[in-house]
Write a structure and sequence with these properties.
- The chain has one domain.
- The chain contains six helices and no strands.
- With 163 residues, it is an all-alpha fold.
- Helix 1 runs antiparallel to helix 3, helix 1 packs antiparallel against helix 5 and helix 4 runs antiparallel to helix 5.
């Protein structure tokens, strides 16, 4: 019962990460297509209007989208899972710094969406980490070698038995 619930939670978490990754990819694409996208939608108080900021944020957003897609595909990979959690945390700190410290944006729908998605994702990933099945983690080289030895010894035992 507990195992099936944890699998359901991980499945929901995987789907949510994939949806967020798809939205993140769309935002990254928008940063490259329309250099004024960020200035008009998010960083409304910023003085820079050359498009450089948009391209830099676009690259960062593209990298996080790729990372999140990889995490959605291989959610049991704990280093990637941790990096995905860290990417949401860095995104949250970034937008809060832009609002309250640098004052390049205000609390408006686009920044509130980022805060909400990052916050919910951090909570979801933090909670989901507790349910990751330890048997699904990446195998160490020693585990792989042990598995090979066990398989080889079973094979040789079966071969001797049939001879």
């Amino acid at each position: 019962m507990i195992k099936s619930r944890s699998l359901q939670l991980i499945s929901v978490l995987r789907t949510c990460i994939a949806v967020v990754a798809l939205m993140t990819f769309g935002n990254a694409l928008q940063c490259f297509v329309d250099p004024s996208f960020l200035k008009n939608r998010l960083y409304t108080n910023a003085k820079d209007d050359r498009g450089l900021t948009s391209r830099i944020v676009g690259v960062w957003t593209l990298i996080t989208a790729i990372l999140r897609f990889i995490c959605a595909i291989d959610i049991y990979n704990k280093p990637i899972f941790g990096l995905t959690l860290l990417s949401f945390f860095v995104g949250l700190v970034h937008i809060l710094a832009e609002i309250f410290h640098y004052r390049t944006t205000d609390l408006m729908p686009s920044s509130l969406i980022q805060i909400t998605v990052s916050g919910i994702s951090i909570i979801g990933l933090g909670f989901g980490y507790l349910f990751l099945d330890k048997s699904k983690t990446i195998q160490t080289m020693e585990d792989i070698e042990d598995s090979k030895r066990n398989t080889y010894s079973k094979y040789t035992f079966m071969k001797q038995k049939t001879s």
